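Hey,
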Amino acid sequence: MVVLVLAVLAVAYAGAAAALSGRVPRGTSSAGVDLGGLPRAEAEAALAEGLATASTEPLAVTAGERTGELDPAAAGLVLDAGATAEAAAGPAFHPVTLWRHVVGGGDVDPVTDVDDAALAAALADLAAAVDVAPVEGAIAFADAVPTPTEAVAGEVLDAERAAAVVVDGWLTDPGPLALPVVVREPEVGAAEVERAMGELAAPAVSGPITVVVGEARVELSPAQFAPALSTAPVDGALQLAVDGAALAAAVAAVDPEALTPAQDARLEVRGGSVAVVPGVDGAGFDPASLADSARTALAGTTPAERVLSPVLVPVEPETTTADVEALGVTEVVSEFSTKLTADAQRTENLRIAARTVNGTLLMPGETFSLNEVLGERTPEKGYNKAPAISGGRLVADYGGGVSQVATTIFNAMFFAGLEDVEHKPHSFYISRYPVGREATVDYPTVDLKFTNDSPHGVLVETWLGGGEMHARLWSTEVWDVTTTTSPRRNVKAPQTIVDDSEGCVKQAPSEGFDVTVTRTSTRDGEAPRVEEFRTHYNPEDAVTCTFGTAAAATPAPAPVG
């Protein structure tokens, strides 16, 4: 009888297990997705759909008081929906599985595939964003007054424990995932700062220091040397730190003649040829040695102890003789001249500008800017008021005529084959300039710019002589330049304007027209480089001034620029 009962029960068990095999027990869920009663394949699909957002969107996390995000894909976290569905269904014919079908399956943890290396890398990136480094105790010397900086503990991500928290909770935690952090105490605490305030900082600014430089004795007050001071932690203790370069600058500011500055090598035009003027070494401080000797002096308490005699070292020029020799500035590659007017004040403006530009050296790849070289043309620089074009009319303005410097240099650049970056022709044609090959300037909006696109240096030489403005470029010839000028087209006649204002400047009429200048640059082994420069000239109206009989009787000047 017992055997018969057991046989019946076995058959019933096997039948129930077979009927429920491959199905998820009722009442089963995973990460909030209801799987109860579903076949294993449908449970897998339900998981993939239900957790699609949670498994792909950025995961919000907190680390202490900081917040951040983790990208599951970048962190190597992937939901294994198949394995999760299999775990939810349980092994067939297992008593526990059958019992779960009777009482309910409960919650099943989702199964995750983890790329440990990718997760570690993602947590390292997160740590860089959320870690709060400890603030070390320190001392600042603002206004020569030692001021302590309070030490503050930091918080950094505990990456190893955080990895476990992420793997366990990235799909199941309802809110931002709280990642563990570790408190990092500063190496330099309040006690060490207090010690350094009394033993280091107070003596350092207790009085002036004297720097002996040859025969000179340069005294620096605390206000003058304190900007070079700070503190640095070494094995948990503060040490006085001195910025040697900043201290050297303070010495130079107090006594500019105490040190001998290095002189850069340069190019100089002499007697129709260019010569290299060698660079000259200067004498200066070795910043590290100066800092070391200063730390000793700053610990002293008497004037005799607060004297330092740093060793001077040679200081090479930034531009050495070899640097200049390598530039290949050996010959005249182009030159151009334009005739001066009879206006003495205008000529003086040109003389000042030419003197300022003369000797400008352009390195390969460097761009020349006339406005940058000259700056604003002001009476403080010696510039006079002279005729200049503004709004299509002649007006008196400081630096009037400097556009002739621009035109002359532009033509020298043009025939050297250098790269035109920015130039603007005058609004109307000026007959003493080459048609279509001229430029105006107006600080700071209108400029003449060109780039030295050759492999050699370019030396700009400018001067006034023989009734002309001259520009000459020295380098090594790269291009053979030729030019052609089109016939004038779209010719337009000027009008006549009568002006009775006191500031009126007479002007003679000239036609407006369009013209195209073509520059062809050639060199061995390369196709010619052909560039077109298109210029539009407005007509220059005749202006008659009627303010006062003297003004009305004055002959109209020739156009100037």
